[in-house]
Write a structure and sequence with these properties.
Strand order of the largest sheet: 1-10-11-4
Order of helices and strands: HHEEEEHHEEHEHEEEEE
Low-confidence stretches: 1-5
CATH architecture of the domain at 147-253 and 289-296: 2-Layer Sandwich
Number of helices: 6
CATH topology of the domain at 147-253 and 289-296: hypothetical protein PF0899 fold
Distance between the termini: 62 Å
Radius of gyration: 25 Å
Shape: flat
Mean pLDDT: 87
Structural class: alpha+beta
């Protein structure tokens, strides 16, 4: 029994939904292991730091308590961005029962909707060391050596190796040491730890070796590894094959908020006997606190 035109038109939607993740069988997107993903509630998202009073002052007997001040840092606004694509299925294509072609174009639309957030999230990290793309409230690139410490009004906050180094045990140890002496918004030391590595696919095997080895990787001595156990996030969509990052335990860091996630619409174009299918999502992403990530701009 021949399929009707309407049934072929209707077959597009389930194919698209399968490819852009509305079915639960799809593998978890990689960027969701790196960014804190949620559904946004605010119309406009603001990112602002407040510098506290630093150390308290000694109070002498019968003397007054010293006044303290809270310093407000600069503000960064994060707006929604809408990404969308469409395909058009003609009456003739459906009437001629070209289901293979319909399935191919529908799957392509779904795949594009599924993978676009991966590329956008990777692009955010790829630009982490590029001053042309300020990504934090203080107007600096995501990873820099001159982030603003709000409480002291000094541009000496750093979340990158001052001398770029390839991913090795020694360079990872340096990052872990630097995180322990990182300064908070009030100018006082706020020790952080490295929770996970973020690496491109080219560094995936090396990162896993560092994470799993009891001893120092590639060493002839018997020294134990102090980086063992760190989680590894391999992000295949990164452009660079050499840059790497450590994700820290800072509470507010890389975020991705969906206003609309993987939506699908269809409509008719009567005068041309076509049916139009649109897939889209609306999201915003960025970094609220540069201390949430520490990078090496290795060449």
């Amino acid at each position: 029994m021949a399929l009707s035109v309407n049934s072929l038109f209707g077959a597009v939607e389930p194919v698209v939904r399968k490819h852009y993740g509305l079915e639960r069988k799809r593998k978890k997107p990689q960027f969701k292991s790196i960014f804190n993903v949620s559904s946004g509630g605010e119309t406009v998202k603001h990112s602002m730091e407040f510098g506290g009073p630093s150390q308290l002052q000694l109070k002498t007997e019968n003397g007054p308590v010293s006044s303290v001040s809270i310093t407000q840092g600069p503000n960064k606004t994060w707006n929604w961005a809408l990404y969308a694509g469409q395909i058009t299925i003609s009456y003739e294509l459906a009437k001629d029962v070209k289901y293979g072609q319909i399935k191919t174009v529908a799957g392509s639309l779904g795949r594009a909707t599924s993978l676009t957030p991966e590329y956008l999230a990777a692009q955010f990290l790829d630009r982490a060391f590029n001053s042309s793309y300020p990504a934090t409230a203080d107007g600096q690139e995501l990873c820099a050596t001159d982030h603003l410490i709000v409480g002291t009004n000094a541009a000496n906050g750093s979340n990158m190796l001052s001398t770029a180094a390839a991913l090795e045990e020694e360079s990872l140890e340096d990052v872990m040491t630097n995180l322990r002496t990182m300064k908070g918004p009030d100018g006082m030391i706020t020790p952080f730890t490295a929770e996970a590595l973020i690496v491109p696919s080219a560094l995936g095997h090396k990162a896993n070796k560092l994470s799993m080895s009891d001893k120092q990787v590639g060493s002839a001595n018997n020294d134990p590894s102090v980086v063992k156990g760190i989680k590894v996030n391999i992000f295949d969509f990164l452009d660079s094959s050499t840059r790497w990052w450590a994700k820290t335990d800072a509470p507010n860091g890389l975020f991705w908020e969906f206003d609309e996630e993987a939506e699908f619409l269809e409509d008719n174009s009567i005068t041309t006997l076509q049916r139009v299918y649109v897939a889209f999502f609306r999201a915003r992403w960025g970094c609220e606190d540069w201390r949430a990530i520490y990078g090496s701009n290795a060449a």
